[in-house]
Structure formats: C-alpha cells, structure tokens
Design goal:
Elements: H1 9-22, H2 24-38, H3 40-44, H4 50-71, H5 81-92, H6 97-119, H7 126-174, H8 182-190, E1 198-208, H9 213-224, E2 231-235, E3 238-244, H10 250-267, E4 271-276, E5 280-281, H11 286-298, E6 305-308, H12 314-320, H13 324-328, H14 332-343, H15 347-357, H16 362-369, H17 373-387, H18 394-407
Parallel strand pairs: 4-6
Antiparallel strand pairs: 1-3, 1-4, 1-5, 2-3
Family: Belongs to the CdaR family.
InterPro entries: CdaR-like_regulators (IPR051448), CdaR_GGDEF (IPR041522), PucR_C-HTH_dom (IPR025736), PucR_C-HTH_sf (IPR042070), RsbRD_N_dom (IPR025751)
Protein name: CdaR family transcriptional regulator
C-alpha cells in the first residue's frame, strides 16, 4: 500500500497518461518536424500535404500509446488503421519502406524525450515513467510490424493496380483504339500523353532473371517509376511502353531516362533488352511505333541494352531484316567460309571486320587486332582464296560483309 501522500502505480500511470495527453499536439508537431528533418525520404519529398499527413499519423500513434499507458493494456494491430492509410500515401509519394519505418521510430524517440522532460521535476511519477517505457516498447513492436505489413500491402496493390490500368491502355493504343472513357483519359493525362503527343514506343524483354515472377513484376514496377511520365506494362512475356517524347527533350532525353530504368532493374537482378521506335506524332501512331520498336529490339539479338531504331545505320537496318531471298543469294563458297569460321575461332571474320573498320587499310587493321602487319596480310589473302573475292574491291568486300551479318547477326 502506498503511504499517505503517495500515488499508487495505477494512479501514477493514469496521471502521466493525462499529462502526456494534454501535450499530445505539441509533441506530435515536434515529432513531425524531427521526421521531416532527419529522414531523407521525407526531407527530400516535395509532396505538399506531407507534413499534415505525418502529423496526423503521429497523433494517432501517440494516442494509442496514451491509451495503452492509461489502461495498462497491450495495443492491438487493428488499432493501427491510420498506419495502413499512411503507408499507401508514402508509397505513392515515393518514400521507401526503410524511411517509413525509420520515421515511426523517430516519432517514438521524440515522444520518450518529451515524457522525460515532463517528469523531470515530478519524482512522484518516476514509477509511471518506467512503466511508460514498457508501454512504448509494445507500441513500437506492434506498430512497426503493422507499418511494415501495411507498406508492403500498399506497394503490392498499387503496383498491381497501376500495371493493370497501364496494360489496358496500352492494349487499346496498340489496337489503334483511342481511349474514350473518363478514367482512361485521366490516366493518359497522368502519364503525360494526349491525342497529339509526340511519342516513342518501347518493346522489351527480360534477358536475365532467376527469381519468381512476383518478384520480377515488383522489380519492373519500381524500375518503371524512375521514368518521369508515360505508360509501361507487362504484356504476356514482353514489356511495352508508350512514352511522351517532347521535341525539346528529343530521343536523347528519352534514352537517358530509359537508361535509368534499366539501371534500376539491374539493381534488382533483372537485365533488360529494350527496342525504341523513332519519335512519332499522335497516339494513333502507336501500332506502327510498336512494329518499329520490335524491329529495334531484334537488332540486339538477345543481348541486354537499349537499341533505338533511329541509331541503326541503313546497312544495319537492311541486313537485320533477315530476308530469306538475300540468304539464298549468298554463294556456296562464301557460305562455307563464313559457317566454318563461325564454328571455329572467328579469326578470319574478326580480321575482315577490322579491315572494314579501318577503311580497307590492312596495316591499321593489324594495329587494331594487336598483330603484326604480315599476319593481317596473310589472313586477308586466305580469305580472298577461300571466298573468291577481291578484298581490294569495295563491292566484293561489301558482299562478304552482308553474308557475315546475315549468317552471324550477333
């Protein structure tokens, strides 16, 4: 029994709960300022409503703490309903889960420091202050678990929802249909697209990933968010994008932004190959743009990277078409030479390609190959003998080059 003038443990807790409750608004504002100052994702965010949202979240969690202290009761996960709403907001604002959880901890530390200050000159509340630690640990334990689960659920929902909406829109555009419903037109505006936009179309595929499909979709979803505007979606086994390409940015700006997408995907263990169309005017140009993007993708021959159709030379474009008639026009002698060297070490093909790159200068080709010039001359003579081609004649060298590109496009 407490002596006269002393408070029982229960009375102490309730008095402290009342004391903290009166100061909740001030403490929550202090915690909000601390979060916005200390946590990088919050500090760097430009979301105009972020401070008021964080303040609401702090107040809600602190009220859970006060209730747990007052009633000497363990907080239950269903009390953190506001946390689920806040998690959804943080995902849409691009704030990471580690930063979301760190903000939660920063708020609790601020609350504890405030309790210490409130009880510094109140020795009769020392027991309650000790009890407050236990209550706070329970709030942190249950609250951080609820926060992590809410964040992951929000992330899964938003990625799936955005992917589904983008896929439906892209399906319409590639079918030559202009979206007419209000929600889809709104989604187009959000993506920075309109009927008369200058666009590029992207066609891609995953060339390296060993994880589960759910993980793949999540990685691709996060990577796509690094692109400033536009639509990205997984359609069966391909990646398709319809992206705005304002004239002032040009194709160079689009390719730089796409590089950030592939870099982000690579961080998640995913290697992408992306083909990019030429800039086209109007959403009704999406179908031919898609065909261009598929062709550019084919020019990568399964290698990771980005290939813009406009960066292919006319020669690359023509030999990449893989015309069966062109294959038939390759002489048996040249075909035998190319196929035999491909099956070996490619020594003669590499020498010929270096010779072409050096503008038919054998000595420069030797330097590029790090071999003696006599070695280069010898190899070129053997090529001429085996193919029946005069390597001093541009047209005959061109025939050989076309044969190599058709038979060994990679």
């Amino acid at each position: 029994m407490p002596s006269q003038g002393e408070l029982s443990g229960e009375e102490e807790r309730r008095r402290l709960a009342e004391l903290v409750g009166r100061e909740l608004s001030r403490i929550a504002n202090a915690a909000t300022d601390q979060i916005l100052s200390e946590v990088a994702g919050y500090h760097e965010s430009t979301a105009p409503t972020l401070r008021s949202e964080v303040l609401t979240h702090c107040l809600d969690v602190f009220e859970i703490f006060v209730r747990a202290l007052d009633e000497d009761d363990e907080p239950q996960p269903d009390r953190f309903r506001v946390t689920a709403d806040q998690a959804m907001r943080r995902v849409t604002q691009g704030i990471s889960m580690p930063d979301f959880l760190r903000a939660f901890r920063v708020a609790q530390i601020t609350l504890w420091e405030s309790i210490r200050q409130l009880t510094a000159d109140k020795p009769d509340l020392r027991f309650a202050a000790a009890e407050a630690v236990s209550a706070m640990m329970k709030v942190i334990e249950v609250g951080t678990t609820a926060a992590a689960e809410a964040y992951l659920e929000a992330e899964r929902f938003l990625v799936a929802d955005a992917t589904s909406a983008a896929r439906d829109l892209i399906d319409d555009l590639l079918a030559g249909q202009q979206p007419v419903t209000g929600p889809r037109q709104a989604a187009l505006r959000t993506a920075g697209l309109s009927a008369g936009s200058v666009i590029v179309v992207v066609a891609g595929r995953v060339v390296k990933f060993s994880g589960e499909r759910n993980t793949l979709v999540r990685v691709l979803g996060k990577a796509a968010t690094t692109y400033p505007h536009g639509l990205f979606a997984m359609r069966r086994n391909e990646i398709v994008g319809v992206l705005p390409a304002p004239i002032q940015r040009g194709i160079g700006g689009v390719l730089r932004d796409l590089s950030r997408v592939t870099d982000k995907a690579r961080e998640g263990g995913v290697e992408l190959a992306l083909g990019v169309s030429t800039p086209l005017t109007g959403l009704d140009a999406a179908p031919p743009g898609y065909r261009e993007a598929k062709f550019a993708l084919g020019a990568l021959h399964g290698r990771p990277g980005i290939q813009a159709l406009g960066e292919l030379t006319t020669f690359d474009y023509l030999v990449s078409r893989d015309d069966p008639i062109a294959r038939q026009l390759i002489s048996p002698q040249v075909r035998e030479f190319v196929e035999k060297d491909l099956a070996g070490d490619r020594m003669y093909i590499d020498t010929l390609l270096a010779y072409v790159e050096a503008n038919l200068n054998a000595k420069a080709a030797a330097d590029a190959l790090y071999v003696h010039s006599n070695t280069a001359y010898y190899r070129l003579e053997r090529i001429a003998e085996r193919t029946g081609k005069d390597l001093r004649a541009f047209n005959e060298v061109l025939d050989l080059l076309v044969a190599i590109r058709l038979l060994a496009p990679a």
